[in-house]
Amino acid sequence: MTRAEMTARGWECCDIILVTGDAYVDHPSFGTAIIGRWLEYLGYRVGIIAQPDPKDVESFRVLGRPALCWGVTAGNLDSQLMKYTAMRKMRSDDAYTPGGKAGPRPVNASIVYTSCVRHAYKGVPVILGGVEASLRRFAYYDFWSDAVRRSLLVDAKADLIVYGMGEHALAEVAHRLRLGEALTNIRGTAEMRKTLEGITDVHELPSYEEVAPPTAEGKLAFSRMTRDIDNLTNPDLSTVLAQRHGERYLLVHPPAAPLSTAELDVIYALPFTRHPHPVYRQAIPAYEMIKDSITTHRGCYSGCSFCALGTHQGTAISSRSADNVLAEIVRLTHDPDFHGTVSDLGGPTANMYGTGCTLGRARCSGKSCLFPTLCANLRTDHGPLLSLMRAASAVPGVKHLFITSGIRCDLALSPGGKGYIEELVSSHVGGRLKIAPEHISARVLRAMRKYPPEVYRQFLAHFRSCTTRTGRPYQVVEYFISGHPGSTLADMIELAIYLRRERIAPEQVQDFYPTPLTLATAMFYTGLDPFTEKPIYVARTDR
Ligand code: SF4
After folding, report:
1. pLDDT of residue 88
2. CA of 160 to the centre of ligand 1 (A)
3. For residues 38 and 31, what is the distance between their CA atoms, to the nearest angstrom?
4. I need a surface site. Which of 91, 135, 280, 342 has the fewest CB within 10 A?
5. Measured from the CA of 368, which atom of ligand 1 is nearest?
6. Structure pTM?
7. pLDDT digits over 245-277, tens only?
């Protein structure tokens, strides 16, 4: 992060400089840390410029000119989401900033930072990555301006977007830049081209000009674009998705292959300090929350309409080996700041570790592996996870091990989940189990592509019988979403009656937030179900 650190390493320049909207925390829960350590492992000299001041070009010159490229990211989350609430009110806090105060991260950070690095040094390639660029790679609905915008690649005027989990694609990009080769036809990337010539397996999406008008035709085209993206974004396919923007084409190459267990093990064994850079004097709230948590796997095959996790991380589960996870816990216990509690052992969904498609697929076109019912080809065995939980609890120095990542109730209740809820209750709930039924109305849950309310009730009954049996009076904290497409006033009244009957004072009801590239956002904008093209009710105004 500093010239002094470069000098100490004997570097005259960096090969790649990552510019990020988050404070720099060298912990594997932070995207910039993972990418930085990964590139370092591959032999590149990596600099990090965290939360630079867009008004001061010198803050982009602190490490000099990068020899190969800039890697620009808004940070762990979308910069608009970090700046505004679902009611479009400015937030006063930012969990990824020292002291937790909003301020240093600009809105549309990918665009702003790209312009700044271009200004700082001319002629250096700019590669965009992270959640913001990943989910805005196609033409997208922008809730904050209530308009369809062009792909971020066009608006930021960057050279390439690396989307999804970027290790494979970025390794290829850096390798080609070192050899002076063109950055074309790389899996897991989006690029601009003048023609579609020479591309054999291509699917042309409705153009930006077709999906942008806020008319019935424009919205239908947007809905079809969303459906096609969902159906065809699959690492098992070789289909390139093309979308005309004016005179040029946006080409989105197929996703990079999910990382294997061996590759994940290499990444999570890299020498992360697990701490914020020593330059920071104030606590970083997001770090305080996850510092003692352990990631066991990546990916999610739930396919919930409102969620971008599977879209970003992929729908195939990549699990670390048990030995690799345990070795990280041993390292954690040697940290003087560790006090004996592993705060989480999980991933996008805690109980997907070691599960997945028995046919070896990443996904089937447009299908969730869990909705409307569990697919017969899904391996749901929780045995590897249970063994891992027990082994992790037995690591010397670990007094408590909690599971705070989300749990899929239907998976836990499946035959493969036998013993999981009992194990959770006996040792891994820190007083309250946080769970996200999201809604209680069957109609809304269908629009969300989630299991019906009976499954959640069954889970609750099982959980409560376990707490009674073990004499542990744990509470359940439920999370709900209001205003999801498909949710009418009658559905919200049904939810209110449920809460009253069950004497629940919910900790949090999140109003639906239409973030780019989710199916629910397409429903919100178009008022159509992207798969059936039937109208769907949307509570669109603030009132
Ligand atoms: S076959 Fe079933 S488990 Fe496999 S990817 Fe398709 S839906 Fe998922």
Report:
1. 85
2. 31
3. 11
4. 91
5. 7
6. 0.95
7. 999 999 999 999 999 999 999 999 999 999 999
